């Protein structure tokens, strides 16, 4: 087995030289390695970092959080505020407190086929986002905008049915070209399968960023070349190849062999792998480590009768030595998570319930829950049913699979039979999670912007179902009226200290109910060639690629 595995790694490294971008003679080409291939290239369908990373080089959001965690304009000309008059509190038609927010699209913003980016695209994007059958990820954003007034081709006013503390942030309102995608939207329920983003991904009219996609090889690579209609600073590289290598051992082999230039921190080697690589080859590459708002956890399908019992959920976490995992596997650089909110975020609550490694307590909880009979090393209940759970994560991610083996082993010691069923990322995120087809436990990460109310992941309105065409990201099926209420109240509370109290209560409930099992907060490891400069990690949801026009090859010395 060992020899066969090694041979596979070498073969992948050799084959890498046959794919686009293998020549390193000139520094006008950059080859990036990532571990996942997008399940869709539509900006608002299926939440995957792989897609966000690639599209960040080809598009620009209207607003975004920058590397300093400040909200800024990218596609708009000025950030609306109440102080500058571009945001005006108002009453909604049903007598509630809302707000009207006015944006102006950059006058020089043009799609790659020369068609101007206009308010027609804004209206179409809103229409698609609001439709209950399109399957967009952030349905709530489109729901809360109850009207849009168009002033001219570039200026529009959004009327929100709530006055929220983040009223100017429309980061997820990602424009869709009306002139290309209106026809596929004729049948909304089929739109996610017919969008031009997936049927004709290299169509230059889909993009208005520094680069445009010119080639897509499913599961293999994406090629990007400069977009001639881009209005900003000219990008340095004449060609960028994003190569997908799902196995992280093969990823490292490709880096060392020259098959790729760099490994993206957002979707590359985990910190343990990067630290080990730095010890061996620290002089060959630049290593950046960025802690951030990246929450590695276990989603639990609460429709499963076993996991619906809170005592079982508490037992599952008490059975895990998470401190040992982060110290032994990650050199202590990835702190144990106790809730979904990072200690780096100002709303983090330090005094909520925490779960220490306590296998004796875990055993007592399982006994109380009725799983008290041990047969052949597996607990059974009074009906003779075994305590068996499906355990899924992204196949080929060496570090995740190692963590998975440790968790599986620790659960096994208590008689919990966790059965591994890993899948390629595009299948797991594009179908199994989105359509809630996993029956037990799924290990993956959420990445978020600062102070991000968890509406899409915890609010009961965002449980994916066939009726809403699997919109939403509440894959656990968690439903708690107090949590729903807190989320609704947090977003409309402008006073920071009052919000802090609500966030505290939200984290208390999360820690008690455990809709998911927190593992640790990840630190991303960026492995760059020594000649590359301009890459600045953000530590939050927005990938470094969103500022790709700042990347360039360092001028040779002498």
Topology:
Elements: H1 2-16, E1 29-34, H2 49-55, E2 63-65, E3 71-73, E4 87-91, E5 97-104, H3 119-130, H4 139-144, E6 145-150, E7 155-160, H5 178-181, H6 191-194, H7 196-199, E8 211-217, E9 221-226, E10 239-244, H8 248-257, E11 262-263, H9 271-281, E12 285-300, H10 305-308, H11 310-318, H12 322-330, H13 359-368, E13 373-375, E14 378-380, E15 388-392, H14 398-412, E16 417-420, H15 425-432, E17 441-447, H16 455-458, H17 481-492, H18 496-513, E18 516-529, E19 532-533, E20 552-553
Parallel strand pairs: 1-10, 1-11, 15-16, 15-17
Antiparallel strand pairs: 2-3, 4-5, 5-7, 6-7, 8-9, 9-10, 12-17, 12-18, 13-14, 19-20
Helix pairs in contact: 1-8, 11-13, 17-18
Under the CATH scheme, the architecture of the domain at 293-522 is: Roll
Spell out the CATH superfamily of the domain at 293-522: Dipeptide-binding Protein, Domain 3
Main structural class: alpha+beta
C-alpha termini separation: 49 Å
CATH topology of the domain at 293-522: Dipeptide-binding Protein, domain 3
Q: Identify the overall geometry.
A: globular
Give the number of helices. Answer: 18
Number of strands: 20
CATH classification, class level of the domain at 293-522: Alpha Beta
Strand order of the largest sheet: 8-9-10-1-11
Biggest pleated sheet: 5 strands, mixed
Give Rg in angstroms: 24 Å
Percent of residues in helices comes to: 25-40%
Stretches where pLDDT falls below 50 for ≥5 residues?
Answer: 1-25
User: Mean of the pLDDT scores?
Assistant: 91
Strand fraction equals 15-25%
